[in-house]
Amino acid sequence: xxxxxxxxxxxxxxxxxxxxxxxxxxxxxxxxxxxxxxxxxxxxxxxxxxxxxxxxxxxxxxxxxxxxxxxxxxxxxxxxxxxxxxxxxxxxxxxxxxxxxxxxxxxxxxxxxxxxxxxxxxxxxxxxxxxxxxxxxxxxxxxxxxxxxxxxxxxxxxxxxxxxxxxxxxxxxxxxxxxxxxxxxxxxxxxxxxxxxxxxxxxxxxxxxxxxxxxxxxxxxxxxxxxxxxxxx
Length: 233
Prior knowledge:
- This protein is α/β, with parallel strands linked by helices.
- It is built from 8 helices and 12 strands.
- The strands form 3 sheets. Strands 2-1-3-4-5 form a 5-stranded parallel sheet, with helices on both faces. Strands 6-7-8-9 form a 4-stranded antiparallel sheet, covered by helices on one side. Strands 10-12-11 form a 3-stranded antiparallel sheet.
- α1 crosses α5.
């Protein structure tokens, strides 16, 4: 069964979200605080998705996201907060969240986002299987191992989230091609994604910090102004 961790200090909201996710077929772990969330994650089998409120007692949702992401690069993370400021969205996505939803939200939209994120995580974890395609994609000094889900640069591994890995897959399969932001959004997040296309820009900035020698002067992930991005090995 699919498992999700719901971290929300407001009992009524947490119970409503948990009830609807259970009705959608999820095994739900509920936590009123970040500290309790980490205890549950250590005591139970791995979760597929984590829904993290930002405003929590003690450790906040940002710190919890960073802590979870350090130990589990594959889990899908959605940040939830009453704050709608652009800076909060960018911060959440920059530290490893895959998606961001602003309160108040409809429960049906939340469940749809959770399901979509879970499909991406499962698809990414499944690799190519035995469909005849190579397990490794090579581009210049980079090797993308689709079986182990690891990116190597000149033989050195680079830790990527599942979303970052899928963006790199898209680049490697379209070398030298200018990809419009909407195509990247559709290719990685899916056609039914509810969020803002700016999530692409945030993840590109994060990728540049990991793979470029000089992130401020990228040589591999190039900006096509007014359009999108192009991969250059």
